Amino acid sequence: MASSSSSYTNSPCAACKFLRRKCMPDCIFAPYFPPEEPQKFANVHKIFGASNVSKLLNEVLPHQREDAVNSLAYEAEARMKDPVYGCVGAISVLQRQVIRLQKELDATNADLIRYAASSCNNLEIPIASQSGRTRTNSNTGHGGGSLGQNPGLYFSSPWNRSDSYGGDRNERGGG
Ligand SMILES: [Zn+2]
Questions:
Q1: Could you report the per-residue pLDDT of 31-57, keeping only the tens digit for each?
Q2: From ligand 1's centre to the CA of 163, what distance in Å?
Q3: What is the pLDDT at residue 120?
Q4: Ligand 1: distance of its center to the CA of 10 in Å?
Q5: Which of 15, 25, 47, 67 is deepest in the core (most CB within 10 A)?
Q6: Is the pLDDT of residue 157 over 90?
Q7: Phi, psi angle pair for 20, to nearest 5°
Q8: Distance 32 CA to ligand 1 centre (A)
């Protein structure tokens, strides 16, 4: 704080320069509105007003002020671009995108389950009629893939149950 305050004595912060006032050492804007970013304060002042920003910063704990200013700057910039919706415009576009991609993902996962089931069975079952019943797919998958699945379960059990490691060894030796 002491080292940074010396740099503010020469050039006022972006807020004080914009408001044409003397930048005091205890200026609440100075740490968050450096003179190199004049547009940041200009946007925030236009949308929220300097006195409201000052009040808000005084209500927020010092370690949260930087995040608060960044949030205000982001919202101000968004509201300059879209005066009606601001950030909400971008958020709603992204929400719609998420819903659309989730539907695509669900459809692709359903396709994958169908393909996996058909390759396991090696039978020409009309898959389309089974699309509603995913449970039957898992059942047939377990029955058809017993050769591939049972050894995997057998070898993974000693790792999962380390306390019964000796018991598994005996079982393997006996069987
Ligand atoms: Zn200042």
A1: 999 999 999 999 999 999 999 999 999
A2: 66
A3: 78
A4: 11
A5: 15
A6: no
A7: 55, 55
A8: 9
Given a cut of 70, is residue 128 above it in pLDDT? no
Burial (0-12, 13-18, 19+ Cβ within 10 Å), 42? middle
CA 3 to ligand 1 center in whole angstroms: 16
Global pTM exceeds 0.85: no
Mean pLDDT of the chain: 76
Sign of dihedral through CA atoms 93, 98, 104, 106? Answer: negative
Q: Ligand 1 centre and the CA of 33: distance in Å?
A: 8
Neighbouring residues of 127: CB distance < 8 A, sequence distance ≥ 6: 114, 117, 118
Q: If you measure from the C-alpha of residue 113 to the centroid of ligand 1, how many angstroms do you get, rounded to a whole number?
A: 62
User: Quick one: pLDDT at residue 126?
Assistant: 54
Please report the pLDDT score of residue 114 as a whole number: 94
Distance 132 CA to ligand 1 centre (A): 65
Instruction: Write down the domain spans for the chain.
Output: 2-81, 84-141
